[in-house]
Automatic annotation (TrEMBL):
One GO cellular component term noted in the UniProt record for this chain: cytosol
Name of the protein in its database record: GH92 family glycosyl hydrolase
Enzyme Commission numbers on file: 3.2.1.-
Membrane-spanning segments: none
Alphabetized GO MF terms: carbohydrate binding; hydrolase activity, acting on glycosyl bonds; peptide-N4-(N-acetyl-beta-glucosaminyl)asparagine amidase activity
Pfam families, sorted: Glyco_hydro_92 (PF07971), Glyco_hydro_92N (PF17678)
UniProt domain Glycosyl hydrolase family: residue ranges: 300-761
Keywords associated with the record: Glycosidase, Hydrolase, Signal
UniProt keyword Hydrolase, yes or no: yes
């Protein structure tokens, strides 16, 4: 039964179930039509298993992610609760305003609010297995609803219906309390998703004469220190309140906060603050509107004022924004695939998230308040993940103005960085130094070479080179002098070597486009450094020591954090030279041996290997690991070896085993949209194996038809004629009615508009696009040279 249908009054449910509404005429046609894209999304996909996404309310790229938290994580045990919510948890602690979508690390969970009823108001969350021990509550999925921009659930213990919506910089709660019961809210500033020791450095609460409640806190966690401010208003007046510090042996006195008025009604500061807010018996639902800011409380107050309207107005505006964003691709497909596709597109449109206030101010990487001019500052850049498919997808499905904001934010961060480098993994304007590479570089390069973003090209190239030349970062000094990162001086050296080499290649492409011959030559040379860590004798990428010898002993299946590879092993990383696959295949001994090695990877028997110690290793198909990013391009590599039908077979295997329209429907962390963007591209029939080439490598489509509305208004249509479970292979391809005998399509061809048509077949066409000239770009070409 539809989740929304469950909560309707019984009479309405019975009428709808009986088909008595809209049973004739236009209504019957509407009933048969597929749901609109915004209604095809299921935010619960990925909330169980390894997906790490949240089901709550968020606007496209919104600053606020208002969602339920189902547990309080413990230090170094919060991986599974990186989004604050897990579908299998039996209780909800409260609703907080900031969350990551699918991250492999936890943080955020700011400003937790929870409704309470009755004469006694607990100020501690209590235990999940002890109902009534605190303010947390049991709930049922039967009463849970999630759609883009809206979340609702019935809290079993207080019998409160809780609804959430969000604008760009505001979150709005609506609580329907049981009649005749005293209504309260608990506002807890002590909780975070990443429960780091000494997590709260300071916090404050201030109640103003007009009833506005403001506050702030500074937290110690993944990105530290991190400041967040809020302003909160209520649709009903406060009857009474209590501000409490639960830190032992400390007494705090009130102070005048930085609010609008010369006086405050009450104020407190400390490291462990919780508020009890009492409203008495209410005759109407209570609405709570919250604005947040990374700048100051006045910024939060102004953000709150910048989005007027009540719950329904904000919900309607955000739903319209999602309707517009998701309509960038109009897809025809069977219901399960259509739901999976639009949910993936939805998850791809959450980050990078707005971090600038309505007046353009933001707190930058140096913790200073800055003023954006001509753009809105965004943060939450999970670049090791998202440079692969997420950012290339955004260049196609988002207006140029939004992409311009993303790119301008990266360049502003480089200028404001104390180290003068582009972001690595940034959120809330702060650098976390998580993962490897300098992958802002391919994001900028890919967009620039596509003509997206309207950037100052000279400043962009300078920022890219500065990042690539910053010696103290990740063994770059040795990389520049030795041509590889030595494992006896730097962990994960093999992975760093090849990822740096690819980033360097993208710098060379931009420099070439700008006529910078010296920079082009220098970075083209660095782009071939991947060869310095490849061992032709074993056929694997390996870590080398500073003296040039490969480290031993060597086990290509071993995965250990801080070892030779980053969240993977030699099987995955030996394929990561996306700009020079032809060069790799020569080292492997030619196309046939490359195909044999690819098959060996997918068909590997893992029965005697235990990867339970490695959190990010999920979605295994042999040694192909779809739940983590280093494998994401590998199925497309059969195209580079002249056997595209093998790519088509592997993609079917991956899509059917790694994605499904259920809560556990993502095989691994969505990683701020990368897992989802992979599915969006693959369903359309092509994938950006090497961003910066201007090419998408053809796989095979998984939707019957897709029409993309591109920035600028042109339309590009993909048609899969005869697509079925039996017709899983490409028989032939046409582009604008002309035969296409190559396994890639150019970005410029898509942006020009037109039609890509696949004729599907039950048997592989082993003659289509197999020649060397039909293959995608490779820096050193193909063959024996």
């Amino acid at each position: 039964m539809n989740r929304t249908l469950r909560i309707l009054p019984p009479l309405v449910r019975s009428v709808i179930a009986a088909g008595l509404l809209g049973a004739t005429g236009a209504g019957a046609q509407d009933a048969a039509a597929p749901p609109a894209p915004v209604d095809a999304v299921d935010p619960f996909i990925g909330t169980a298993g390894e997906g790490h996404v949240f089901p709550g309310a968020v606007a496209p790229f919104g600053m606020v992610q208002l969602s339920p938290d189902t547990t309080l994580g413990r230090f170094r045990q919060t991986y599974n609760w990186a989004a604050g919510y897990r579908h299998e948890d039996p209780t909800i602690i409260g609703f907080s305003h900031t969350h990551f979508s699918g991250a492999g690390h936890s943080d955020l969970g700011d400003i937790l609010v929870m409704p309470v009823v009755g004469d006694t108001v607990p100020l501690e969350p209590g235990e999940a297995d002890k109902p009534g021990s605190g303010y947390r509550s049991r709930y049922s999925h039967d009463g849970e609803v999630a759609t883009p921009g809206y979340y609702a659930v019935t809290l079993t213990d207080p019998q409160v219906r809780a609804e959430m919506t969000a604008g760009t910089r505001v979150g709005v709660h609506r609580y329907t309390f049981p009649a005749g019961k005293a209504a309260h809210l608990v506002l807890d500033l002590r909780t975070v998703i990443y429960d780091y020791p000494g997590k709260i450095l300071w916090s404050s609460l201030t109640l103003h004469p007009d009833g506005t409640l403001t506050g702030a806190r500074e937290t110690r966690g993944w990105a530290a220190p991190r400041k967040l401010y809020f302003a909160m208003r209520f649709s009903a007046p406060l009857a009474t309140h209590a501000f409490v510090s639960t830190e032992k042996d400390v007494v705090y006195k009130g102070f005048k906060g930085p609010g609008r008025g010369p006086e405050t009604l009450d104020a407190i500061d400390g490291r462990a603050l919780v508020a009890q807010l009492d409203f008495g018996k209410l005759s109407a639902p209570l609405e709570v509107k919250v604005g947040i800011s990374g700048v100051d409380e006045n910024g939060a107050w102004a953000n709150l004022d910048s989005e007027p309207g009540d719950f329904d107005a904000i919900r309607g505006k955000t739903r319209a924004a999602w309707r517009e964003a998701l309509s960038a691709v109009d897809v025809a497909a069977p219901a399960p695939m259509r739901k999976t596709f639009y949910t993936a597109l939805y998850h791809s449109l959450m980050a990078p998230s707005v971090w600038g206030d309505a007046d353009g101010r933001y707190r930058g990487p140096d913790d200073q308040v800055r003023q954006a001019k001509g753009f809105t500052f965004h943060s939450t850049f999970s670049l090791w993940d998202t440079f692969r498919a997420e950012h290339p997808l955004l260049t196609l499905v988002q207006p140029d103005r939004k992409n311009a904001d993303f790119l301008a934010s990266l360049l502003a961060s480089q200028k404001e960085s104390p180290f003068g480098i582009l972001p690595v993994w940034q959120f809330a304007g702060k650098e976390t130094w998580t993962m490897i590479g300098y992958h802002s570089v391919p994001v900028l390069a890919d967009a620039y070479l596509k003509g997206v973003g309207n950037m100052d090209a000279k400043a962009m190239l300078n920022a890219m080179v500065s990042s690539a030349d910053y010696g103290p970062y990740g063994g770059l000094s040795d990389y520049k002098s030795l041509g590889f990162v030595p494992i006896d001086r730097e962990p994960e050296a093999a992975s760093k070597t090849v990822e740096y080499a690819y980033d360097d290649w993208t710098i060379a492409q931009v420099a070439k486009a700008l006529g910078q011959k010296d920079i082009t030559a220098r970075f083209e040379k660095r782009a071939l450094n991947w060869r310095n860590s490849f061992d032709p004798k074993t056929g694997f990428l390996r870590a080398r020591k500073a003296d040039g010898t490969f480290r031993t002993p060597f086990d290509p299946t071993a995965i250990n954090y801080g070892s030779d590879y980053t969240e993977g092993n030699a099987w995955q990383y030996s394929w990561f030279m996306p700009h020079d696959q032809g060069g790799l295949f020569r080292m492997l001994g030619g196309d046939a041996k490359a195909v044999a090695k690819l098959d060996a990877m997918f068909d590997f028997d893992n029965s005697k290997i235990d990867y339970s110690h490695a959190e990010d290793i999920s979605g295994l198909i042999g040694q192909y690991i779809h739940g983590n990013e280093p494998s994401h391009h590998v199925a497309y590599l059969y195209d580079y070896a002249g056997q595209p039908w093998r790519t088509q077979e592997r993609l079917k295997q991956i899509v059917e085993s790694q994605y499904k329209p259920t809560p556990d429907g993502l095989a691994g962390n969505d990683d701020l949209g990368q897992m989802s963007a992979w599915l969006v591209f693959t369903a359309l029939g092509f994938y950006p194996v090497a961003p910066g080439t201007g090419e998408y490598v053809i796989g095979r489509p998984f939707v019957e038809r897709a029409e993309m509305t591109l920035p600028g208004g042109k339309r590009f249509t993909v048609v899969a004629e005869g697509l079925s479970d039996a017709n899983r292979y490409i028989g032939s391809v046409t582009l604008n009615r002309k035969p296409l005998d190559r396994v890639y399509i150019k970005d410029s061809e898509i942006r020009a508009g037109g039609e890509l048509r696949f004729i599907m077949a039950a048997v592989p066409n082993k003659l289509w696009a197999t020649g060397v000239k039909a293959r995608p770009y490779s820096m050193t070409g193909y063959g024996t040279k």
